[in-house]
Amino acid sequence: MQGSVLAIAGLISKAIGFIYRIPMANIMGNEGNGLYSVAFGIYNIALTLSSYSMPLAVSKLMSSRLSEGRNKDAHRIFSISFIFALIMGSLAWAGLLFGANFFAELYQKPGLQYPLFILAPTTFIVALLGTCRGYFQGHRNMVPTAVSQVLEQIVNAIVSVLAASLFVKMAEDTTRDFDVSRGAAGAAGGTMGTLAGATVALFMFILLIVVNLRKIRAERNSGEASNEDTAVLWKALFLTVFPVIMSQTVYQLGYTIDDLIFGNIMVRVRGISERETTILQGIFNTQYNQMINLPAAIAVAFSSAVLPSIVGAYTKGEIAEVRKKMDTVFRFNLLIAFPSALGLSILAHPIMDVLFPALGEYHGTAVILLFTGSSAVIFYTLSTLSASMLQGMDHMWAPVKHSAISLVVHVLILTLLLLFTPLKSGALVIGNVTFPMLTSILNIRSLKKLADYRLDVKGMLIKPLLAALVMEAVCFIVYFATDRLGGSSLLQLILPLIAGMATYIPLMFKMVPAEDLARMPIIKKFVKKHK
Asked: Where are the alpha helices (DSSP H) in 316-396?
């Protein structure tokens, strides 16, 4: 149920993030959208190096000690982690602030420095925020993280749209001395929301800690006496954080290396203009990736939520319980991933029509990217969950190695496609699918070797896929009929969605065994009703 809470919050946050990006993308324009997405790729690297690992690391280290009654050591871990976050957040802040102009030149993106200036202090705030979230997740309480994520996104949405609109108007006003392009101004305004949202979420946790300070102190002073010195705790933190940082850095490097390779080869080798290159990157990172990331957010949320319970079971030597939890999480997420991937593919055209009407001449490009690359939803789901499971069983370096191997293959494929084929943004999509596909294969192979875990191919892959294919056929028939009858783009999207859901849900209950459904959060409540 804790996983369900975090998954729902993650989905709501992604939905809010997706919704506000639609008007913001139209306000910024295609060029501003490209600058915004490239800036966020660099920001995510800084975030990964400074703080992305903190919720996972803090929750893992605290959970294992709390399960053994070592409350003092668990709270000392939190204190040490907070100091670590202060240091790393400050370094990331300085790196983005003083390196912004260098990145603008390196990526062949004039104006890129302006959104980076605003994102620089955000890395510091998010580092502290991640540590606070890890504290509560370590207590297997996902509610504060869930509430803060939704609150953060609401503030982010409001401020991003308003600031982007204001900055664009300032750039277009010839009476003002505002020597910044429309796209760069819009991208800078859009990043203001990220800073504001993270700040509000951090204040929420500060207030929560202050209110519960007496309870926190009581817990810290209870339990067994501390039996780990400070050096041992710092070592434990580094041994947990560093592999996670490396794993996520490799993952995030995939995006920013794509931007770097794509921008330089397109401009310097193939002679494509900087403006068109930036626009194509913006379409890939926004119109395509935003749609892919929406359903994949559930897997990300579950990977964070399931980690403390896996750590607790693994620490106690309950390997059978660990495998059971793996089964539940894989099944739940794949039942969502398959219909999401096929639905995005078959409805790519009306999705772009309804959500991104300002694409103009690039509408067809966005449709093709989503149609051909929607399978990435399935592979990102598998790779994210399997990596979290390996980390939960203390095999911290396995996902790092697998991600690194996949990244090397990914970079090779992308470079060869851009140099020797006429593909442009299509090369980015191919790389976006092959990277998580190879990573998930390697991760699942390690789960089999290290935990004797075998993925139920028939129950987890084949049956949900068959149900999703039937759903896709129904969606296509309804979409085709609506199109022939002259229905609007909105009807061409809504009617197939309704028909697809009405088809898939009953099939899911028929094709997936009731005992499997009964183990899944939320869904199990409807099993008896369905019977």
From this structure: 319-346, 348-355, 363-373, 376-392
CB under 8 Å to 362, separation ≥6 — which residues?
Answer: 30, 279, 280, 283
For residue 520, give both structure tokens: 């899944």
| CB of 39 closer than 8 Å to CB of 115 | yes
What gap in Å lies between CA 70 and CA 14, rounded to an integer? 36
Phi and psi based region of residue 178 (left: phi greater than 0; alpha: psi -120 to 50; beta: remaining): beta
User: The tokens of 35 are what?
Assistant: 């600058």
Query: Which pTM value belongs to this model?
Result: 0.71
Which residues, at least 6 apart from 507, have a Cβ–Cβ distance to it below 8 Å? 467, 470, 471
State the amino acid at position 182 in one-letter form.
R
Whole-angstrom Cα distance, residue 530 to residue 230?
A: 54
In a domain, 330, yes or no: yes
Residue 513 lies in a domain: no
Range of the domain at 344: 2-455
Provide the number of structural domains found in the chain: 1
460 found inside a domain: no
Q: What does each of the 531 residues of the chain score in pLDDT, given as a tens digit?
A: 666 676 677 778 877 887 888 888 888 887 888 889 889 888 988 887 776 677 777 887 888 788 777 788 888 888 888 898 899 899 999 999 999 999 988 887 888 999 999 999 999 999 999 888 888 888 878 788 888 989 999 999 999 999 999 998 888 876 666 667 888 899 999 999 999 999 999 999 999 989 888 888 887 777 666 667 788 888 888 877 777 677 667 767 777 788 889 988 998 899 888 888 888 888 888 889 888 887 877 666 666 556 667 777 777 778 888 888 888 788 888 888 999 999 999 999 999 988 888 787 888 999 999 999 999 999 988 998 888 888 778 787 888 889 889 989 999 999 999 999 999 999 999 988 999 999 999 999 999 888 888 888 888 888 889 999 999 999 999 999 998 988 888 999 999 999 999 999 888 877 666 665 665 555 555 555 544
E strand or H helix that includes residue 165: helix 143-172
Q: 497 lies in a domain? A: no
